[in-house]
Write a structure and sequence with these properties.
The complex is a heterodimer of chains A (about 350) and B (about 270). In chain A, α4 (about 125-135) crosses α6 (about 155-170). With about 350 residues, chain A is α/β, with parallel strands linked by helices. Helices cover about 35% and strands about 25% of the residues of chain A. Chain B has about 270 residues and is of the alpha/beta class. In chain B, about 40% of the residues lie in helices and about 25% in strands. In chain B, β1 and β2 (about 20-30) form a beta hairpin. The N and C termini of chain B lie far apart (about 65 Å). Classes of the chains: A alpha/beta (about 350), B alpha/beta (about 270). Chains A and B meet through α4, α7, α8, α9 and α10 of A and α7, α8, α9, α10 and α11 of B. Bound molecules: adenosine-5'-triphosphate, adenosine-5'-diphosphate (ADP), iron/sulfur cluster and magnesium ion (MG) (2 copies). Adenosine-5'-diphosphate binds near residues 14, 16, 23, 45 and 46 of chain A.
Chain lengths: ~350, ~270
């Protein structure tokens, strides 16, 4: 399996009021051609920053360590025309379409701008390509839609316009950052089906960022879980739910209510999620982990292969298969483990 | 006094028209004390409009709303009646940023509500503020912090504590847990279940999230374009939806083995 995208030990620091603030730490992930990788985690964990680093859209003054390779090129070294070409091959779709579209320009102008300016495509031809792209994402009467303004379209339709626009430059990789979060569940299902078709028809690779583990599990091949700026687990997406490797992944699975059954009480995770710069040393999840031992708190955890996945937890092998067991009392097992 | 066994909230023939648009049409439901009712449906189906009419932020075009045995379909005639209505039915919105005063700590916000609605001395108010803080899981440091120093989940808990300070019979939760992170959402849902057990309060939960609906409510109304298209026990409606729209809604929830299906036309 040749990796289209390879991110190695990526660390990003942003300048905030004169000091550096670490927002992702040592992220490692790779995406094969045609593969969909889910990236899940709570707010502030660094999902969007990872996508922005890959697309080279980080805020000015950001400090970056590690490497990003895309189709063999060193992304962090790109500049000028090469960088523009990279941004065409790696398309990004964000959560809130209205925040990324000029409200006073027609859909056609928005969709065709980069084709006309970057690729010198004549207007009539650009319009035809835009109309075809709209059809591909299931929008009827594209000629009329192209003449409309953003406020005349619903949120779900506008998000499909964003996806269609992203596809116009014929990207190889789509970075979808919470692109269905603001949509109704029925519209979300529609947009997901469209993305699924595009993957199959075009061999598009995808980094699918979401806080919804179930959604990632259903539409991705593999899923990475982020906590406090670090990837803590990468596993086959359909397995993450039934057989998580990291205590945080297991805690996320258990904290979510289930539409098919009512829980007596949800298994809440104590405390709140933190960002990289707020995280303690040693295992960053330790303050909230029911399985934490002293050694977890004093040792930086490293991403290590386990079965077919990777996990950043020194106890992962010991805890294997027990993380979702309701009869497993962490305090008891900890006592035996300590003894 | 209203009948103790009768509904604490009763809505019938409720209708709201904005200009030419019918936002809510002929809606009726009863809510018994201590029970929880969910309202689900697509964006724009009229859920928030129903909530706003029940709390008196919007005037119904037609229909009646009776809470705690008293009609509230018409605007309150005086300040006393307005305060009493506020005491009986409270609402918590999705966005705790906009509903909290940025210059006021959680403790001050709760204390203010207590002063307006009840006749307690300062020591009693302090005790109640402490009890409510315990109930929603905030410590005294968090209660004395300004909203901007709190996380979204903590702010949402302040909003819930403040709503509970009036000792409402009905609490309307309009997407109140939607913006919360998974781990915080679970904490808040547990808190809401505890409060219902301890206080016998009734909830109206407006939510897009069918898993949350299942966790917190016994009954559900499904709305589409202003109309209730299905109603019943939450478990029944989610396990065996009858109306095509409810079926589509349920089928859109991802889970093991789920494949998104495309209903819109695909080019040949
Ligand atoms: N003040 C208003 N003036 C005009 N139209 C309004 C007003 N408030 C709501 N509407 C319209 O009434 C309909 C119902 O809106 P409502 O906010 O109740 O929907 P909702 O079910 O809460 O949707 P969502 O899930 O997006 O919150 C919508 O078409 C909306 O545009
Ligand atoms: N422009 C910025 N300047 C400073 N800090 C930022 C900026 N954007 C994001 N952050 C911080 O970086 C961290 C990671 O953010 P982000 O990648 O957006 O998280 P996620 O997408 O997982 O919610 C957070 O602590 C966030 O507050
Ligand atoms: S290293 Fe220790 S504290 Fe961290 S997740 Fe594993 S068991 Fe929990
Ligand atoms: Mg983000
Ligand atoms: Mg609403």
């Amino acid at each position: 399996m040749s990796a289209l995208l390879e991110v190695r030990d990526l660390t990003v620091r942003l300048r905030v009021g004169g000091s550096d603030r670490e927002v992702i730490t040592g992220t490692t992930l790779e995406i094969a051609e045609g593969e969909a990788m889910g990236l899940v985690g709570e707010s502030g964990s660094g999902k969007s920053m990872t996508a922005k680093a890959i697309a080279r859209l980080l805020p000015a003054g950001a400090g970056v360590e590690g490497s990003v390779h895309f189709a063999g090129t060193d992304v962090l070294a790109l500049s000028g025309a090469d960088l523009r070409r990279h941004r065409a091959k790696v398309a990004v779709v964000f959560q809130d379409p209205r925040a990324h579209i000029n409200p006073v320009r027609r859909i056609e102008d928005f969709m065709t701008e980069s084709l006309r300016t970057l690729e010198d495509v004549p207007r009539a031809q650009a319009r035809t390509r835009a109309a075809d792209a709209l059809e591909e994402v299931g929008i009827d009467d594209p000629a009329r839609r192209l003449r409309q303004f953003p406020h005349e379209l619903s949120g779900g339709m506008l998000q499909r316009v964003m996806i269609a626009t992203a596809l116009l430059s014929r990207p190889l990789l789509l970075l979808a950052d919470e692109c269905t979060t603001a949509l109704d569940v029925t519209t979300q299902a529609e947009v997901m089906a469209i993305l699924d078709d595009l993957r199959r028809d075009r061999g598009l690779s995808m980094l699918f960022i979401t806080h919804d583990l179930e959604l990632a599990g259903a539409v991705c091949d593999r899923t990475s879980v982020m906590y406090a700026g670090q990837v803590v687990e990468t596993s086959a997406a359909d397995r993450l739910h039934a057989d998580p490797l990291h205590p945080y992944s297991a805690a996320l699975v258990q904290a979510r209510p289930d539409v098919t059954s009512t829980a007596e009480r949800l298994v809440a995770i104590p405390g709140r999620p933190v960002s990289a710069f707020e995280a303690p040393s040693g295992c960053r999840f330790a303050p909230r982990c029911p399985h934490a031992l002293d050694s977890c708190r004093s040792t930086e955890q490293v991403l290590t292969g386990l079965d077919a996945g990777r996990v950043r937890c020194e106890r992962a092998a010991t805890l294997r298969g027990r993380l979702l067991d309701p009869t497993e009392s962490p305090t008891e097992s900890e006592e035996t483990a300590d003894a | 006094m209203p009948d103790a066994d009768g509904p604490v909230l009763s809505v019938s023939g409720l209708r709201k028209v904005f200009g030419t648009q019918v936002a809510v049409d002929d809606m009726s439901f009863d809510l018994a004390p201590g029970r929880s009712l969910a309202i689900v449906g697509e964006s724009g189906s009229g859920k928030t409009t129903v909530a706003r009419m029940v709390v008196g932020l919007e005037r119904p075009t037609a229909g009646t709303i009776v809470a705690c045995g008293r009609d509230r379909s018409r605007p309150a005639r005086n300040a006393g009646e307005r305060t009493r209505r506020g005491r009986e039915v409270q609402i918590v919105f999705q966005d705790p940023y906009s509903s909290l005063d940025p210059r006021q700590s959680g403790a001050a916000a709760v204390d203010e509500v207590l002063r307006v609605h009840h006749d307690h001395d300062a020591a009693t108010r302090r005790r109640i503020v402490g009890e409510l803080a315990d109930l929603v899981g905030l410590d005294s440091r968090q209660m004395s912090a300004l909203p901007r120093a709190l996380s979204g989940g903590q702010r949402q808990r302040v909003a819930i504590a403040r709503a509970l300070a009036t000792e409402p019979k009905v609490l309307i939760l309009d997407e109140s847990v939607a913006a919360l992170d998974v781990s915080i959402q679970a904490q808040v849902l547990n808190v809401l279940a505890d409060i219902r057990d301890e206080r016998g309060i009734s909830y109206v939960l407006i939510s897009h999230d069918l898993a949350v609906v299942r966790q917190l409510t016994e009954d559900v109304l499904v709305m589409q374009r202003g109309v209730v298209v299905e109603r019943g026990r939450t478990t029944d409606v989610l396990d065996e939806p009858q109306h095509p729209y409810t079926q589509r809604l349920r089928a859109s929830v991802p889970g093991p083995g789920w494949k998104p299906t495309r209903t819109l036309r695909r080019p040949a």
